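Now for a typical sample entry:
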Amino acid sequence: MRLLLIRHGQTPSNLGHFLDTARPGPGLTDLGLRQAAALPGALAGEDIAALYASTLTRTQLTAAPLAAERAIEVRIRDGIRELSAGDLEMRADEEAIRQFLTTVFAWPAGDLARRLPGGEDGTEALARFDAVVAEAAEGDEHGTVALVSHGAAIRVWTAARARNVTVDFAARHGLDNTGVVVVEGTPDSGWTALSWAGTVVPAVTASGVADGGPAGRALPGPELGPATDHPTA
């Protein structure tokens, strides 16, 4: 199956670089509403059989124009909400953002037990996202499914589950509002990323290494990307 992992439109918290992850969260800015309205045209070539959004308001507002244009329902699922910032909620300082980034990108690197203070650990976060993907994969009619989710959740899940996306690539490459990551596969066979925000992601070779391009870079050291890269969506 083909998954379209879509970050929602711009919010006021995005403008302030706040770690805004709690339910129900803010709505969209005027620009965010225009981004949402542009989604049906941007995805005109995709035969979308099912559409999901998280329990946060901003994803539902982003999904609404696409749902109306395709005459399909939006399935609301908590599993694809943003990664919980816990005690770092609504902070925008460099220390908090760096702590958030280094923790959540430690999960796809293998440290699933690492936890943000007051937040979830990697096992919990990936399991809830996996559960929604597994639901979406049920039924042969779901050839292409769109999931409107959040920046950190999409980046971390893709790094953990797509065989050709390294932690380094996902940590260093943000996803703009209404940016799309396209993956293909099944929960049983695994996933391959086809594109990241419109850029082709190289396939994995027989040796298990991405065939050139940024997705094949080595894992980073302790510093996972710049703290100015706003992690949440």
